[in-house]
Write a structure and sequence with these properties.
Length: 480
Amino acid sequence: MSSPTATERTLDAICNALPAGEERPGQKEMANAIRAAIQQEGHVVVQAGTGTGKSLAYLVPAAVSGRKTVISTATKALQDQLATKDLPLLAEHCDRPLTWSVLKGRSNYLCLQRLDEATAAGGQQTLGGVAEASGASDLVTPRHLRLMQEFAAASETGDRAELDEEPQPWVWAAVSVGPNECPGAAKCPRGDDCFAERARSQAAAADIIVVNTHLYGLHLRNNQAILPPHDVVVFDEAHEVEDIISATTGISMGPGSFTNLARVIDTLILDVELIDHLHADAKRFAAALEPHLGSRFRRGLPPDLAEMLSQMRERVNQASNAVRQINDSGSPDLITRKARVATAVGALVIECDQLIGFDDSSVMWVSGTQDAPRIEMAPLDIGVTLDQLFWNPEPLGVEIAVTGSATSDQGPAFGSPTTAVFTSATIPPGLATRLQIPTEKLVELDVGTPFDFENNALLYCATHLPEPRSNTFLEASAEE
Ligand code: SF4
């Protein structure tokens, strides 16, 4: 009999340390498959039923291998479980020192530069786009800003989740940057003490980074430039991967995109006419989208929407020219604000172009509500998107990437992880094919569940109940 591997020894040590710890063959089988895949630079799709202990089954081989690993989860609950329970437990029993970090999207961290700007403006700003979406008062008062300054001074992380009270959306919008606004630390006067940059540096130094799959999707969309380079990625809750990656590599644009642009530009240019036009365009855009609510377009955009988007693009171009003409006179603050606006404008132009250039490789629809309609576009075939962005990324980026987006100052880091693991208690049939995982490197397995559902579960079909749509169904099922 061969001697146990380091992965097996670590799993055994953890198992023995737990009060009700018992060996789980499925967990070991899964861990060994992942260990082999990491060694051979292959990929694994593994269904691991309830009770397998799948998080340790991927954490242990990743930690033992010493390879930089990103764990991507669909839910915050799982992120919390990994960061506060599984990883500390693993660190106690791992032969090697282990560090980890949870990394969130940039808009989750307080932006010191935005706070400085808002403070210099003395509060009392109105943030139309955000208020429009929330339907609430949109005033950012000096008191709000004082609370944010106190938070900035006291917090180690600047993470919004650490605030004692959830801030109103428009207040947070005034002191944070959206995904397409930050010009990068090198161009920012507060880059050296930026919370988001600090979180990113900690992640870069950690052995294991925990993120959510939305952030991973944005990382792919931005030519793999948001997360630090890594060797292994594990998608837990992989049954959600298709939907999330599809949403994050697609486009979602509503009137708020333009009111938000007006807000960003308002911090830089005293051009009342342009700002008014952007707000008016946002209203016209909402009115144009509203009749199409719930519609799905298969063969190009309806003419009225195509025309509207062209006009919006023209307006954004106008804004872009106005920004370009600003003389920053070498002022670091002005340079940052100009770069931030240019980044936001550039991203919006690209999104307008992609929507206007919509073809049959994507699907487009109008979602939201009458008050806040949105046009959405997503790739029809997520496998093609992943092939371009993940399995075989182009060295110079691909069409769908948002250039100029706030990522790392080092620029895009090409080179996908050499091992990808997809795991869930319920792997959807055909997932590996739809994701276009290279078959020559792929291992698929189902390690089952340690629970004896066959002998301990009961399926009860109340066939005598009325149809679920009938008026009497609720009452009858409550009685049952
Ligand atoms: S680098 Fe970006 S997120 Fe950080 S303070 Fe500057 S503008 Fe804000």
